Amino acid sequence: MTRTAAATEVRRPSSVRALTTLLYVTAVATVAVDVLNWWYAPEQGFGLAVRTGWALLRAFGLVLLVGHVRKGRTVARPFGLILVVTTVFAVGRLIVPRQGVPPWPGIAGFAVLTALCVAVLWLLYRSPAVAGHLTRHRGRLVIDRQGISWRETPPRRPAVAGWLLTTRVAAFTYSPLMLVPALVAGGAVLDGRLGAVPAVLFWFGFALATSYAVLFCTFFLLRGRRWAGRLLVAVTVVVLAVDLPLCWWLLGVDGLVRDGAPLVAAAGLALYGLWRGGHARAGADGHGPAGATAGPGGGGG
After folding, report:
1. pTM higher than 0.90
2. Helix (H) or strand (E) segment spanning residue 35
3. For the chain, what are the domain ranges?
4. Beta carbons within 8 Å of 256's beta carbon, 6+ residues apart
5. Three-state DSSP class for residue 147
6. Fewer CB within 10 Å, N or C, the chain?
7. 31 burial class (0-12, 13-18, 19+ CB within 10 angstroms)?
8. Taking phi first (over 0 means left), then psi (-120 to 50 degrees means alpha), and beta for anything else, what does residue 102 get?
């Protein structure tokens, strides 16, 4: 077994090994920048603590992404795209104080982290060796004549599901991106704004309900149901219509920028992936440009 693992390691292209190293460096940089921002922050209150903790979770996500890359899974590309975009937003909103200009160590750290994230995206989407490596699907429990086994099985999805997989990953971030500002608003309730208790409770409940709505939509979306795409658009519109006003009302303009902008970015990416997936499906059916089936998640992500 040791020889097999070693042989697998040798067969990995140099670009894949460089990507895994870069992901580890980015994870460490994420932690370092978050700690640096906390150290230099003029106000180390409850809201900053919640947002910093959420940003630190990105380091764990980057480590998970390393596992997907090493195993050559198709989900690594859309997962990496969402993770990189939200990392930049999560860390970027921490370095900007309520008043004045950010401290130069925070700006320098954010610039380094952004450069690392751009390098990760470049390797994920521009390296032919990495693209050729990320072709495996997740293992599934299979029952056949040979018995019960756990092995890799390509999903029964259309070949245009790459962009739709990106849409699914982006849409699944709606709920946590609403829970973070709702938790920050909960701190305002503890400071004496008891009148905001119903709104905060509604915010929490709506965020949890959104996760189930997204799960329902994306389940059928990746199985070729066109109505699921239209339903996901409606869910996205409702999410923005509820979350952004709550951010503005309970957290002010500062909260609207810090917590509303990441959700808008995730929604935009989900809708863009849905639009590209629709064009790819049309191309596969012969009603669009040839070669439109390629997506960020591979052929059958």
Report:
1. no
2. helix 14-40
3. 12-136, 152-301
4. 244, 247, 248
5. strand
6. N
7. middle
8. beta
